[in-house]
User: Which sequence fits this backbone?
């Protein structure tokens, strides 16, 4: 991978199809705002409608002498997508022109599901995933169907295809769907 | 995770490292045993749920191994795969095979034993994490807080199985009762902090064993009331004290299997 990048450096625009204008983009100093905008394009590898910014995974962006450092919060520790997300962030920010990018996952603060933005909640629904409730009412987790909005839903399995999702069924429109688990700090 | 090198007071470092090995090895071995149920769990929903829990638990172990790496104890992969049984600090209960048979050749695993072991361990883990969120070693306190929010779902899951199976009639209740005795006979090994426990407490890393044990019992007791069974005290260490490096042949077998690829291709990227 590294070798390939060096080759591109040696001959910009030749094999990779990059133009001189693309090349001039490289190594310029990005502003924090530009980095944030770029991160909005990095989608969750398993939920393509939602960006890591929507999910509240980006804790901090710093730019020092042109070097960009990004601090992310892992959603679930056992999530196998973390390394993929790290690689996608590095790639996206380099593509946008930064000369140096470091991405680190923070241990603190813990990610909680109330970090998901309003736009993120809407985009989860578009993907067929019910967003997590903002508050945990004792004993009950009321989930609205992301397709028809009905409240007549039942949980089929607390655990779904990924650590952060559960499987539900809508009794109104008869669709199975997934819901993002509420992850909140208990008192 | 974060790669920053961190330090603890040099005199307390030994106790800290010992504690981290206990935490890491406990989660690592139980996650491995959990993964051996893949494709064998009682139904498809359980297969998904248990795999998810085991994967998450493996993620917790990876965090503790990372803390050890940050302290200069070796790479996390090496610590997880390459250490011999004698260097492991997990409780013996967590290394024990899921039952007779073999994963590839006629597995005759015991679901009752698995449910009871998972439920008891998850309660003990929750109590331990609560204590660790106040640990004097900040990186550990931070990791504990993160794991704590995830554990809620594990606990909910195993509590449901524990109560439903034990309250079911005939064979289920008989087998659960037997499994409870079996798990209790080794459960003291989960609760102990081993030979360096006093040092761990002195350095403010974790609460003392007695407090952790009392809190775990208080956490488990309501479930016993729910299923109408007598409390299975006292807990024992029938198959040895893993905190002191005492282990069973089950651990040798587990390590040989789980580290097979790592040993064959040491430079593989994980």
Assistant:
């Amino acid at each position: 991978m590294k070798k390939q990048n060096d080759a591109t450096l040696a001959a910009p625009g030749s094999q990779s199809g990059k133009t001189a204008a693309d090349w001039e983009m490289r190594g310029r100093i990005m502003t924090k705002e530009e980095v944030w905008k770029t991160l909005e394009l990095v989608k969750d590898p398993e939920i393509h409608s939602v960006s890591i910014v929507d999910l509240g995974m980006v804790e901090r962006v710093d730019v020092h002498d042109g070097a960009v450092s990004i601090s992310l919060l892992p959603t679930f520790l056992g999530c196998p997508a973390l390394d993929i997300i790290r690689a996608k962030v590095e790639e996206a920010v380099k593509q946008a022109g930064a000369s140096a990018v470091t991405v680190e996952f923070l241990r603190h603060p813990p990610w909680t599901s109330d970090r998901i933005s309003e736009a993120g909640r809407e985009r989860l629904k578009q993907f067929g995933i019910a967003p997590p409730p903002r508050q945990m009412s004792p004993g009950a987790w009321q989930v609205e169907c992301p397709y028809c909005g009905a409240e007549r839903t039942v949980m089929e399995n607390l655990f779904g295809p990924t650590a952060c999702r559960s499987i539900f069924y809508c009794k109104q429109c008869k669709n199975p769907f997934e819901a993002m688990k509420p992850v909140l700090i208990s008192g | 995770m974060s790669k920053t090198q961190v330090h603890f007071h040099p005199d307390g470092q030994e106790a800290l490292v010992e504690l981290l090995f206990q935490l890491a090895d406990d989660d690592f071995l139980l996650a491995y045993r959990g993964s051996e149920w893949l494709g064998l769990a009682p139904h498809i929903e359980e297969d998904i749920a248990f795999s998810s829990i085991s994967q998450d638990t493996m993620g917790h172990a990876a965090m503790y191994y990372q803390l050890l790496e940050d302290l200069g104890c070796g790479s996390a992969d090496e610590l997880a795969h390459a250490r011999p049984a004698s260097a492991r600090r997990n409780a013996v209960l967590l290394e024990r095979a899921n039952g007779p048979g073999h994963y590839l050749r006629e597995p005759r695993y015991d679901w009752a034993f698995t449910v009871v072991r998972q439920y008891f361990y998850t309660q003990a883990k929750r109590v331990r994490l609560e204590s660790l969120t106040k640990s004097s070693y900040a990186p550990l306190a931070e990791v504990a807080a993160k794991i704590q929010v995830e554990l809620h779902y594990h606990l909910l899951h195993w509590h449901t199985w524990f109560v439903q199976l034990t309250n079911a009639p005939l064979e289920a209740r008989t087998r659960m009762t037997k499994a409870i005795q079996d798990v209790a006979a080794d459960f003291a090994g989960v609760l102990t902090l081993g030979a360096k426990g006093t040092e761990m407490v002195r350095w403010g890393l974790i609460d003392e064993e007695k407090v952790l044990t009392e809190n775990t019992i208080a956490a488990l007791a309501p479930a016993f009331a729910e299923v109408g069974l007598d409390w299975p005290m006292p807990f024992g260490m029938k198959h040895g004290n893993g905190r002191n490096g005492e282990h069973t042949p089950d651990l040798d077998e587990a390590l040989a299997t789980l580290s097979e690829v790592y040993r064959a291709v040491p430079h593989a990227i994980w």
